[in-house]
Amino acid sequence: MRKAAAIWLTLVISAWVHAEPMVVTIPGDGWHLFIDVPPILNLDGKSRDGRFRFIASETVTGITLSVHTENSGAESDERCRDAHWSKTARNPIIDQTTVRMYSSDVFSAVTYNIEGEYRGQHAKASNGHFYFTKMDKCVDVHVSKYPYVDGDEKIIKRIGDTIRALDGLQ
């Protein structure tokens, strides 16, 4: 068991050494989301009615990244966060003792762990939602890490701290 854990940890650390910036183009809005994550291979994005959804995941590192935008008229990052978090917070498998809210110059964030039954299996994962407003849209960048390993909260925060919204092709 320890050998398997050591191999898994080596793979995760190796992925971080080779982390690359990911640029997600927000269709029709003229801006891009920059985020530094370990290499991610499974990508899917859709745009419809002024909303955009993007999801990317990698099974080796356990990182899943999703981006959701919607027209909101939100006046601040905090209002964007509060509007979305009020719905997310109702999830019964969120460990309320792990919920942390903080803000930066770029976003307003909520980080937390989940633990409970999911599709008949016990699951524990670390999560972060990084909310900001851009061009009258509320943007939710969600990063999760599964399966959970002690210290995953730091990985989630480190990824979130790299988020930047760039206008045009910079």
Task: Please characterize this protein's 3D structure.
With 170 residues, the chain is α+β, with helices and mostly antiparallel strands. The chain has one domain (2-167): Protein Transport Mog1p, Chain A (3-Layer(aba) Sandwich). The longest helix is centred in the first third of the chain and has 16 residues, at 2-17. The strands form 2 sheets. The chain has a 7-stranded antiparallel β-sheet. It has a 3-stranded antiparallel β-sheet with strand order 1-2-10, with no helix packed on it. It has helices at residues 2-17, 77-88, 152-160, and strands at residues 20-26, 31-37, 42-48, 51-58, 63-71, 94-103, 108-118, 121-134, 137-145, 164-167.
Q: And the CATH topology?
A: Protein Transport Mog1p, Chain A
Write down the CATH class.
Alpha Beta
Strand/helix succession: HEEEEEHEEEEHE
Report the biggest beta sheet as strand number plus sense, adding barrel if it closes: 7 strands, antiparallel
Round the Cα radius of gyration to an integer and report it: 16 Å
Widest sheet: strand order? 3-4-5-9-8-7-6
Q: How many independent structural domains?
A: 1
Low-confidence stretches: 4-17
Which architecture does the CATH hierarchy give at level 2?
Answer: 3-Layer(aba) Sandwich
How does the helix and strand content classify structurally? Answer: alpha+beta
Number of helices: 3
Number of strands: 10
Q: Averaged pLDDT, please?
A: 87
Q: Tell me the span between the first and last alpha carbons.
A: 46 Å
CATH superfamily: Mog1/PsbP, alpha/beta/alpha sandwich
Estimate the global geometry from the Cα principal axes: globular
* Helix share bin: 10-25%
Beta content: over 45%
